[in-house]
User: What shape does this take?
Amino acid sequence: MEFTVGQIAGVLNGTVEGDTSLRVDRLAKIEEARAGAIAFLSNPKYEPHLYTTEASAVIVSKTLVLRQPVAAALIRVEDPYLGFTMLLEFYQQFARTGKRGVEQPSFLGQGSEVGDDGYRGAFSYIGESCHIGRGVLIFPHATIGDRCRIGDGTIIYAGAKIYADTVIGSRCVVHAGAVIGSDGFGFAPQPDGSYRPIPQIGNVVLEDNVSIGANATIDCATMGSTVIREGAKIDNLVQIAHNVEIGRHTVVAAQSGISGSTKLGDFCVLAGQVGLAGHLTLANRTTVTAQSGVGKSIKEEGQVLQGAPAFNLRDSLRANAVFRHLPELERRLSELEKAKSKSEQTEKS
Amino acid sequence: MEFTVGQIAGVLNGTVEGDTSLRVDRLAKIEEARAGAIAFLSNPKYEPHLYTTEASAVIVSKTLVLRQPVAAALIRVEDPYLGFTMLLEFYQQFARTGKRGVEQPSFLGQGSEVGDDGYRGAFSYIGESCHIGRGVLIFPHATIGDRCRIGDGTIIYAGAKIYADTVIGSRCVVHAGAVIGSDGFGFAPQPDGSYRPIPQIGNVVLEDNVSIGANATIDCATMGSTVIREGAKIDNLVQIAHNVEIGRHTVVAAQSGISGSTKLGDFCVLAGQVGLAGHLTLANRTTVTAQSGVGKSIKEEGQVLQGAPAFNLRDSLRANAVFRHLPELERRLSELEKAKSKSEQTEKS
Amino acid sequence: MEFTVGQIAGVLNGTVEGDTSLRVDRLAKIEEARAGAIAFLSNPKYEPHLYTTEASAVIVSKTLVLRQPVAAALIRVEDPYLGFTMLLEFYQQFARTGKRGVEQPSFLGQGSEVGDDGYRGAFSYIGESCHIGRGVLIFPHATIGDRCRIGDGTIIYAGAKIYADTVIGSRCVVHAGAVIGSDGFGFAPQPDGSYRPIPQIGNVVLEDNVSIGANATIDCATMGSTVIREGAKIDNLVQIAHNVEIGRHTVVAAQSGISGSTKLGDFCVLAGQVGLAGHLTLANRTTVTAQSGVGKSIKEEGQVLQGAPAFNLRDSLRANAVFRHLPELERRLSELEKAKSKSEQTEKS
Assistant: This one.
């Protein structure tokens, strides 16, 4: 994927200062760029790098006044950051998600329909009676179980496993190795101490614009649906148990785990390695800091929680500050006790 | 999968009040059911829903006395919960695990034998010299390495990876993406600070009725076997290291990790995100609460542990209760010190 | 894989006492070995087992003086442990990694080159314009995206997913289900509270002799590279975020998570379930104990950290020791307060 500076300036509706025939084949930060790369300058703090960068081209503002000569070709645009972002998106689309067509061998079950303009990699598997929308990209080794529905423009990366009856909206991204729809962890204890599996017949529903990270796991509902609402972003290795609901535009960072039947509101943020107990409700805009464990429902919106067990951030920070000095605290206490004991003896004597 | 109310009543050995020709195609909770669904009423607390439910049919007790008219068809049976559970299992078996036969392309290595009445999905891989029992379901993209043995009625879901020499019992379930038999994390430090891998030549043994969650990982033993005993249930994203033993009917919830050579007794319960250090022994019926970390062996049976590092639940709850008030504790301590200092000054003066 | 005692003695350059024609087909610990196995005796503490073992053969030191008769054949060598380790490596190479050739169906994209003497399992997928070195083993269901480079002698186990543009060095091991190169978790908040994905166009670079555990996830850089340096060992289910750098010969145990842009030095050790915040720098030889959470950069080399939030190990152990006795501490404090209040009343009266 190689373009000339002139071609890029055309796409960005910019003007060139320097050699329009220079070729660039990658994007880079201005402070790290080497020959062949294009960079951008938006934050004035980085301007010194402009005069030393090895980049072949740099996107700069129309209004930038140069203080020294620049070796790189310049592409002048209204908003350099926006221009660079356009190139980034174009690049990603081209390099990662530009695939179209069907590679062989691939498997398409009876009664399944697949929309136009998509991609099915070699060894991809689509079961029976599925409905796959337009422009859906299904990478190699992805498994789509029977009776699944997937909306337009969704990307299922390599080796993602979607169990039967899953419903996935439009413009979702499911990263490699993610598992959607595995059985909930439900077992009925028997009189002899053994366990009998409770049938898990529900499914998982991802609404539109949902992102699921690599090797994350989302269990189906025991009955009904485990639901990830519109725009929610789930990171790598997150565990979402049966009958959980994740609210709109809620973000769950890597390795967090949410136990069965818990409901998160909209616009919540869970940092990494957080654990939520089962059957909780978290109000909208709840934030939980990394490695915290929440065992109680949160009714008031906009709370920030920390600790395991978690309570409000300010109190948690203060308690942790004292925790470090516990040995000193104990020493001070012992001294008071000694003093008291001594003064009592003095009184008695 | 659509049945009439009459057909279902026949299966459950029940009697119908209402239209036997009504058709239902799914199971639902009585408070959430819509037209086309069948629900059940067992707990009297839910009886009010019976008079408002949109379910097409409800399974109720033979002895239930109606207080109002009911729109749904009723199927009266001895034990409504049991009846519903039978339908659940029937449904799950039909919808999820009813597959039989061999889809193509699939791979069967030299010298491997596969019993009758099973399923091998497209792109499933069975290596050389394997012995696969009767009625085993192997979903697409599952990999079974060389010389594995799998007992009757076991289910290996999509994309599970079973390394060579693994032994799996009968009626086990291995969920999508689980990895069984990867190398133990053993490295010998060298004089220059680098590490040399210690060969890991053991295997993993799952006894009968074991369940392994999605994307869980179980390492092979360095020598000998990592063993998961009969009836143990392992949840999603659990890590089980080399040479670990998990006792009979022990339950390990999601994202817990068990370090090398640790042995869990029978009937233990680890909640989510628990960590166990290596080379420990946990007595039968030990329970560890969520996010706890256990660093010492537990010899007495039936203990409940909490915290990181973990100690007994009651003491841990009490210590945590004080932890929250540490800033206040420090303030009280400071006041006593001030008072003492003041009284000392008074005495001196 | 069956050999005679004579053959093994030949390989190890040892001398046999006993039947050279005895056949062994596996390796075992001396205290667990049964007929057909070969064991070794190095630590004198284990000598009593030599006289009771059921092993068919035991590797012992040239200088060992027997105190009782031994049933097993003996192979006498200079260093029994070294001899056994040679057998272990030979066994592992033969049983696990001895595969060569190409199974069908497998997929090789346009413009990709694969060196000699390697293995490509059935259903393995190699995209376009890849360069795969000599003696590389690619197990079934592994996905290698477009434009990847993999060095000589590297092993990619079943179902590992390598995204486009990844660079992997020589003699690396990537275990089953690992995902390398998934998108970093970067989203720009929009005015309405929703998130827009930030294009992730960087890649992942693994240098030589790196090991990646089963179902671990390594995100690509937003721009530039996420880098795992020479000899680093990453365990199962570890999460490594975008733009992270892991130093040479650094070890990260299972289920640990490293947030975006954090740099670990050389020879560091993270125990299991550790969490590191983003944008940190950890000095060389930093050790972090299990389940700890590090939120600040560590500048001094060789520190040992514990706790969440983590501080130095010694202080953390002492603070934890007091933590357990917090209820008692509070009681002692209350008693001092009561005594003070009483003495004040006495003074007043």
Summary: Helices of chain A lie at 5-12, 47-50, 80-95, 313-323, 326-348. Chain A has a mean pLDDT of 94. The radius of gyration of chain A is 28 Å. Residues 326-348 of chain A form the longest helix (23 residues).
